[in-house]
Amino acid sequence: MAAYALVTENFKFVSLFFKSKDVMIFNGLIALGTVASQTAYSVFAFNCPCSPGRNYCYGLAAIGVPALAFFLVGIMVNKSTWDLVSECRLRNCRKLSGAAAFALVGTIIGRAVVAPLTWVVISLLQGQAYTCALSEFVDPSTLGKDFPSDMGSEVIAKFPCQGSVPTELQRFWGEIERRLKYESQLIGWLLVAGMSLAVFLMLCMKRCSSPFGYLQEDYWSQYRSNEKTLFQRTAAVHAQLLAAENIKNFFGFVALDKEEKELLAEHQSVSPICSTDWNRVTGVYLYREKNGLPLYSRLNKWATYSLEHNVEAMDKEMDTFS
Q1: How far apart are CA 8 and CA 274, in angstroms?
Q2: Name one GO molecular function term (predicted).
Q3: 117 neighbors 191 (Cβ within 8 angstroms)
């Protein structure tokens, strides 16, 4: 029974993949932004050197370096990344099982690869970078008997730049370009097919492993969104009021506008929140229940146990399958 419960808890964590419609919309916006960036880059910045040895490096860099940058940015802006960092820093990940950690890292990487893969796919479908990178490796013997067999990679590498191709070889430019773009676009479409299949399989996994029915999962999504919005809004006001109190104690007055004065009058005083409570609501969260009632977040869990004034039970629960 204990093993079954452990497996069940770990499968619940897999449901973090594509947690809500907001995630899908967000990923779509990232993809559209990446398409616009790649198009602008191709129009204004891409400039193949048309030189042997340099074509390959430049073409791969044009595809790989922006993709790597997008990936790192995606990792950094993902809140789950810092939840995992906080979990390891505060609790040394001692209660985070290997399966749960793998699933969480999977969600982080899954979100982060949207922009890089979009960049790579659009680059391949356009074909400029691939044509530049692979042009010098075209085998002259495959271009027909009319193509001079003594032409080396120095001449072949010039074909991405039509104006640099010798006059007598201009008629081969179209054939080489079509061949390389065909290869590039074929790889691009295969990558699109692979991505689509991966998304489909993850959505199926998410549906099969989710601890919720459809309606409750939709409710959980709305709860998380509302909790995040209200928490950020309330934290901003709390910080403002606490700062106003400290400034007033220092100067004897504080410069506030009318709305801020009304807010300060409504909340006569605020107290700093202790670090222990901040740590309790920070970190990785795995859905749990208490007496059959759902606990939708670390904050929900903290509030539930806080009402019981049972600090020992709260600390034990906060460290359990965080």
Answers
A1: 34
A2: monoatomic cation channel activity
A3: yes
- DSSP states of 232-256: HHHHHHHHHHHHHHHHHHHHS----
Specify which residues 295 forms β-bridges with: 288
List CB contacts of 133: < 8 A, sequence separation 6 or more.
Answer: 55, 56, 58, 59, 60, 63
117: its two tokens: 């893969």
> Quick one: tokens of 282?
């920070």
Nearest Cα to 205, choosing from 115, 118, 103, 286? 103
pLDDT digits (tens, 9 = 90+) for 168-184: 777 777 778 888 899 99
Largest Cα–Cα separation, the chain: 93
Distance (Å, whole) CA 176 – CA 159: 8
Alpha-carbon distance of 188 to 55, in angstroms, equals 20
Phi, psi of 289 (to 5 degrees): -130, 155
**Pairing of the two strands 288-290 and 293-295:** antiparallel
Asked if residue 156 lies in contact with residue 162, where contact means CB atoms within 8 angstroms, the answer is no
The span from the CA of 270 to the CA of 80, in Å, is: 29
- Alpha-carbon distance of 8 to 23, in angstroms, equals 24
Which amino acid is it at 246?
A: N
Contact 16, 109 (CB under 8 A): no
User: Is the Cβ–Cβ distance between 119 and 188 less than 8 Å?
Assistant: no
**pTM summary value:** 0.69
- The torsion of the CA quartet 154, 158, 160, 165, rounded to 10 degrees, works out to -140
Report d(CA 28, CA 162) in Å as an integer.
36
Strand-pair partners of 57 = none
Q: What is the pLDDT of residues 207-262, one digit of tens each?
A: 787 777 878 888 988 999 999 999 999 998 899 889 988 998 899 888 888 888 88
Amino acid at 56: Y
CA distance 38 to 119: 6
| Residue that the structure tokens 């801020």 belong to | 260
